Amino acid sequence: MRCSTFTAIYDACVLYPAPLRDFLMRLGLSGRFRARWSRQIHDEWKRNLLLNRPHLTRAQLDRTSDLMDRAIADSVVTGHEGLISGLDLPDPDDCHVLAAAIRCGASVIVTFNLKDFPAEALGRFGIEAQHPDEFVDNLIDLDMGVVLAAAQRQRAVLKSPPLSADQFLETLLKQGLVQTTKALSAFRTVL
Question: pTM of the predicted model, to two decimals?
Fold first, then answer.
């Protein structure tokens, strides 16, 4: 496995949907970048998922977050709490994400909520907010093989029900990964 120092922090909104969380985890396992999050980020996606999907249990989601933490070494950012009060974002509830990004030396916050992380607020820390599709598209430009392998591994474990390549691509498209889906569709025969 490669070891990169390029670091991306995943916002709660990209960890909330299971298909996207799984894909981002598989990409994080590639070693092409360091995937990071914090306990607060875990708490946020799990809290929202429990509100919207009452058939899920806290124990199930805690198991998922524990597996994530174990899968990627040093993924959980700590020691950032003291930075939160000194930060200013449109939504003060997002300051913990920026604080974690600063603490772990992240270059990117992967989020759907781009308006909540304006360039002028992040730029002074050398951090950029990217939509997950932009993030993966940039990774495709860097190493298409890594993205393709992550997609292949994700699709291979989907057994209940199994998905055809087209169904898998449709799942990624539903996650907002338009450019990613377009790039991967050229490889549908090997997905």
Answer: 0.96
